[in-house]
Amino acid sequence: MSDSVIGPEKTITLHFEIRLDNGDVVDSNFANQPVTFTVGDGNMLAGFEAAIFGLKVGDRQTFQITPEHGFGMPNPSNIQKVGLESFSGIDLEVGLVIGFQDASGELPGVVMAFDDKNVSVDFNHPLAGKNLEFEVQILEVAA
Predict the structure, then answer these.
(1) Residue 20 — φ and ψ, nearest 5°?
(2) How far is residue 106's CA from residue 59's CA, in Å, rounded to a whole number?
């Protein structure tokens, strides 16, 4: 274990919890295995990485990330109408998350509305437009 300070290209092991403004927990690993990542490898939000710069082993901190530094703002062009025939065998309901295949793999979409011809599907990230509160506990910082 190292007492190095978090900065570019450091490998970090930590526990985290993500909450919405209303306190709802979106994700947490405090009761499970910690996560390990390298700063700048693209696996974490840049806003998250910037917020933990300067922390060291043993630090536990809570901070806010705005949509601009998180998952961005919802883009209206990411809401698409898809023909109802593409959903045969699926019991549609508003809020249902469905995986769609695209060139890069699977893309989740949320059913926003549907009628007898079309289904409106939102392909924005579910946390787009949300202010997020992160709580982190730094377990290890390595070069």
Answers:
(1) -85, 170
(2) 36
Angle in degrees, CA 64, 68, 69, rounded to 5: 55
User: How do the pLDDT tens digits run along the chain, 143 residues long?
Assistant: 445 899 999 999 999 999 999 999 999 999 999 999 999 999 999 999 999 999 999 999 999 999 999 999 999 999 999 999 999 999 999 999 999 988 888 889 999 999 999 999 999 998 999 999 999 999 999 98
As a whole number of angstroms, the distance between CA 127 and CA 51 comes to 18
What gap in Å lies between CA 76 and CA 78, rounded to an integer? 5
Structural fold of domain 11-71+128-142: Chitinase A; domain 3 (3.10.50)
Ordered by start, the domain boundaries in the chain are 11-71+128-142, 76-122
Cβ partners under 8 Å of residue 11, min gap 6: 36, 37, 38, 39, 140, 141, 142, 143
If we measure between CA atoms, which residue out of 37, 39, 35, 36 comes closest to residue 8?
A: 39
